[in-house]
Amino acid sequence: MGRRGQVRIVEAVLAVSMVVAVILLLMHFTRPLRSVFIRETSDLRRLGYNLLNNLAENRIYERVLSDLIYAANAYFAQQGACPPGGGSRRLDDLAFFASAILPQGLLFRIDVYTVHHALRNGSAVVCPLGYAANYDVGRVALTEAEPLVYTYVCTGDPDRVRGSVLLIHLTIGYSG
Length: 176
Hints:
By secondary structure, the chain is α+β, with helices and mostly antiparallel strands. It is 45% helix and 26% strand.
């Protein structure tokens, strides 16, 4: 009588181990619905657009870049061309705010451009303002990077930059 209880326990343990073995075998031969690369880049894309939207909603672009935008607009109005040396300028305040929003371990570079519309001939001129990055751009290479393009129109204070169009190019990824 006592052996029947022990046999049933052994049968239950064997049945559970066989079910687990079959599940593990099936998991080994099946693939996820999306590849790891697609899942990683979709997560990077989502994080990147969340970052750009958070910066826009909190009016960081107007607060941090207002002097540069105003100077670029004034120079373009007088000279009809982009200010010299605009793209090499490092925007550390913008990098600080972006680093505070993103999780640890992600590297990013944000290139900011102003877009000037020439109404006479219907053309648009893109002038670089500078870039913000949380890594040494010349030395570190990004792997599994995702490029994003974002257009923003300044609508908040200060009034002197209201209506300015910004073209923002974000590259976000991991170091490699």
